[in-house]
Specification:
With 476 residues, this protein is mainly alpha-helical. It is built from 15 helices and seven strands. Strands 6-5-7 form a three-stranded mixed β-sheet. It has a two-stranded antiparallel ribbon with strand order 1-4. Strands 2-3 form a two-stranded antiparallel ribbon.
């Protein structure tokens, strides 16, 4: 905690083109004309590329993405600049400024990297034309674009957090620069036992998920959409546990260190991103099972590689957007206390440290929780209603048993995952005690990630067969 006599700054004012006051109307007309031409040009490019099948090539795919990014980039900056030129308000809140900075940097970096990708595309087309269709296939193009966008917005997040963790002030306030986790202080006499148990579970979780990702990568029998989604889920669960559990284990053995506001925001960002990513990956897996059982003749067409990559990219994109929104709304609050009644930077425990009323933030959290928990859960539920109705129409008992077996592992993980998430984020704010909240958190941060490899290795015949094949190759 740092204390100083200052007044907290809640808004900034743009000076804009104040040095050219007599030319502002002319500047407004020029910039508005250029802006409209920019928007019209980019919209025309994207539309033409979309409707004309002759332009459905990697080069024009990248160009359409670049035009879309450039359009969003200009939308972030120019409308506000134009309003300032005609004398409208030029003040902006800290949250608004942070959001503008985040999207400006995100789209700017994305554009730079997209131009590099377009250069690589031209290099392959001219220097290696025979391999061009293989190297620049649709899956590779989608992965390149997704990686570029993710890199751009990850870098912008780091930069925005680094800037807006700085105190902006004039005179007379107290600000908090770091937090301390209370962790499992209520179970002080059992902390060594908890450390051993959690460490064992963590090692098993890491090992299990690494085994799943590895075996799916090396065994060609598992190169199917279902196992592609499973490998993505396992990779996401692995990073998810890395974000939370190591620091929790350090706290249990007395190596607790304070965490800066930037560190806390970063932990919260990755926790939310990966948690939501997991929710939507489970939904994608449910959709995959629905298509496989209810529409098997079109399965290979619907669940092609491009479609699978887009579903994974969509899940990750939703996670990034929601995490950015949630973290921004929480860390714009002024904090007066430093002790987080939890073992990681979860949303509600951090909000409780604020000096001001957090009703708006609570409402936002509930709305987001409903959208990212109940909506995917509802979609999975609908998928399984349709799946069960289709399975029951299968005449042979063996066929029904085989169809149910392909869904059992996924359904088990879904019930536990969404059940824990619902209890944690959709229950009334003050229903549980702190210890009960922590017990629920342990379930979805330690137990649920372990469930994925256990269920898919013990209950899934194809994965067990792949493991036996791998063991046989190693022994031979």
């Amino acid at each position: 905690m740092k204390t100083a006599n200052h007044t907290e700054v809640k808004a900034f004012v743009f000076q804009g083109f104040s040095n050219f006051r007599e030319y502002q109307l002319i500047l407004f007309a020029v910039f508005l004309t250029l802006y409209l031409l920019t928007l019209a040009g980019n919209v025309i490019i994207v539309t033409i590329i979309r409707v004309d099948h002759h332009l459905h090539t990697p080069m024009y795919f990248f160009l359409s993405v670049l035009s879309t990014s450039e359009t969003c980039y200009s939308l972030v900056i120019i409308p506000r600049m134009l309003s300032g030129l005609v004398g409208l308000s030029q003040s902006i809140s800290l949250v608004g400024c942070g959001t503008q900075l985040f999207f400006f940097l995100g789209f700017a970096v994305t554009n730079c990297l997209l131009l590099a990708v377009m250069g690589f595309d031209r290099y392959v087309a001219i220097c290696n034309p025979l391999r061009y269709p293989i190297v620049m296939n649709w899956r590779a193009c989608t992965i390149l674009v997704s990686s570029v966008c993710a890199s751009g917005f990850l870098l912008s997040l780091v930069q925005a957090v680094a800037i807006f963790r700085l105190p902006f002030y004039r005179k007379n306030h107290t600000w908090v620069s770091e937090f301390t986790f209370q962790g499992f202080s209520s179970f002080r006499e059992h902390q060594l036992g908890l450390f051993v148990v959690f460490l064992a579970l963590y090692v098993v979780t890491l090992a299990g998920n690494v085994v799943i990702v590895t075996i799916i990568s090396v065994d060609r029998h598992l190169h199917t959409p279902m196992y592609f989604f499973l490998s993505m889920l396992s990779a996401s669960e692995t990073v998810y546990t890395l974000v939370i559990i190591p620091k929790m284990l350090c706290n249990l053995v007395g190596l607790s260190q304070p965490i800066s506001l930037a560190g806390c925001a970063t932990q919260m960002f990755f926790f939310i991103t990966l948690a939501i990513n997991n929710c939507f990956l489970l939904t994608a897996m449910g959709y995959d099972r629905y298509v496989a059982i209810c529409n098997p003749l079109r399965y290979s067409v619907i669940m092609n590689k491009r479609g699978c990559v887009q579903l994974v990219g969509g899940a990750c994109g939703i996670g990034l957007i929601v995490a950015t929104t949630q973290v921004t709304s929480v860390f714009r609050l002024p904090f007066c206390a430093t002790k987080v009644a939890h073992f990681f930077c979860d949303i509600r425990p951090v909000m409780k440290l604020s000096c001001v009323d957090t009703s708006v933030n609570e409402t936002l959290t509930v709305i987001i929780s409903v959208l990212v928990i109940l909506v995917p859960m509802g979609l999975v539920f609908i998928s399984y209603v349709l799946i069960v109705s289709t399975i029951l129409k299968i005449p042979s008992a063996r066929g029904r048993k085989k169809a149910f077996a392909t869904c059992a592992s996924h359904l088990t993980v879904v019930v536990v995952h969404y059940g824990c998430a619902s209890v944690a984020y959709l229950k009334p704010k003050s229903e549980n005690t702190r210890d009960q909240d922590q017990l629920i958190s342990v379930t979805y941060t330690v137990i649920t990630p372990l469930l994925n490899p256990v269920v898919y290795t013990l209950r899934n015949k194809e994965v067990k067969d792949a493991l036996l094949r791998a063991a046989g190759r190693k022994l031979s």
